[in-house]
Write a structure and sequence with these properties.
Length: about 240
Amino acid sequence: MNKKLISFPNVPNKQPLGFGMDLHWDSADGFQRGASGNDTLSNKVKLFFKKYPDFKHFFFAYQPKNRCGFSFDQYLSAYDDLFSALPGDVLRGFHQTVLNLATLESDYPRDAIIDFTNEIVRRYNLRWVNEDLGVWSIRGKSLPYPLPPFLTEEGLKGAIDNVKYYQDKLIVPLVVEFPGFTEGASFFIGKMDAFEFFGRLADETNAPVTLDTGHILGYQWLKNQKNESFLVGLEHLPF
């Protein structure tokens, strides 16, 4: 069976450090609402960009403004202000939070999300979209923190199908991030090893991946894999 090549983001092979930001609404560390929809990036974030102008890549995470759904016009003013504040040569990515890559729901509004995401990608010349492999919402209700995928064969098949669907529809590569596990604050369902789960998904979809070290640490700590045993199971990850 011939498999398609991994579609990596179009970035230089040697990429210097950059950073990502969670830009919340009505926050000094995010976006400010203005009259008649004239929303702006906060002055604090603009000053940060001016103080540290030498970074070479940047991504920001989608945070819903309100219950307006996926109406790009509602975000246009704020996002225009964000990207006008960035240095012109910075490579840009987008961390989605609504793809819901591990959901097993069949009526999720994927087409509206895809149109919304592709519009952002086109306007701001973004190079990739990434998202944690998790359950971000249930029946339209957002979770405080995404749950890990269902660590079962059914959960794996559902996640693979979701990733393939978005790969076919998004106009830039979809980068899949190892799911978040937080000791004392999250739980998971199923008995499959998460490293094996993630490795099999990457193999089946040929998706480029993000290995968040905090997420990996969190999973090992949940399994009480610490100190000398921390490296147990890492060989299953798609290095």
